[in-house]
């Protein structure tokens, strides 16, 4: 019997269930320290859950090449630890109060301990990665970390400012899409991919990550606090301009532009309501334009891997862009 042409979320979970469970156990072991605060913060963050989409991508990439070793589980934990460390630092920088529907770690342990816990998590991720004894893996992770830190610094410099679409895309590549790309590339490296195959999988991860972040930014404006697990329009409150807002700013009246600029300047909805901003975005089709752009990136991700032989793992990767664009949180 021929394999089905499509695969669905439940089947993807079944395909990766054992490996994702192993990554979760590895994550738990790797975030234990003889300093109690680090262990407590690490476990609190791990227990907060998350989609685990990044380690799933690494697993699927390695499985494309029938990789059988333990490295995919180990590096799956590494990328999730790095992602977790970035969230800790982001919440401190953004002065966030909530994360995934729970108090942010910095509200529980304070900024000082959380900065150091985030640093420890970064170093622990590299300590675990060294076990692969693979310089290409380490080079890839070092480049990733530099891109992410540069992205955070660039974003801080641009807070409250009206940036171009190209500047915005550069930021979301550094802060989100770069990690997606690296997950795919590391899976390819483990699997012994050719340079061309690794490049194709890296492009897939980049485009999927771009789609993911654009959708995330739209949801920040449109979803409820209960679904988001944090206050709505957090980006605007923090002075961050995202794609839908940039689209509207290029088309709106001076009065409407002034309302958006007031929120960015004041870092809050003082005299301007969230509903008024949504009305502006809807008037110019800005939310739809952003979603359409995310769909274009999703399609580009699919095209990047179209030449790989058919398999369950390829079909799972072809399904992921649909998941990313259609998700509600």
Q: What would you say this structure looks like, in words?
A:
- It is a single chain.
- With 329 residues, the protein is an all-alpha fold.
- It has one domain: Farnesyl Diphosphate Synthase (Orthogonal Bundle), CATH 1.10.600.10.
- It is 74% helix and 1% strand.
- It has 16 helices and two strands.
- Strands 1-2 form a two-stranded antiparallel ribbon.
- Helix 3 runs antiparallel to helix 4.
- The protein is globular.
- The relative contact order is 0.12.
Q: What is the level-2 CATH architecture name?
A: Orthogonal Bundle
The DSSP helix count reads: 16
**Major sheet: size, sense and barrel closure?**
2 strands, antiparallel
Indicate the low-confidence ranges by residue numbers.
Answer: none
Considering DSSP H and I runs of 4 or more, what fraction of the residues is helical? over 70%
Tell me the CATH topology: Farnesyl Diphosphate Synthase
- Average pLDDT value? 93
The proportion of strand residues reads: under 5%
What is the radius of gyration? Answer: 20 Å
Instruction: Give the N-terminus to C-terminus distance in angstroms.
Output: 37 Å
What sort of overall outline do the alpha carbons produce when their principal axes are compared? Answer: globular
* Whole-number tally of structural domains: 1
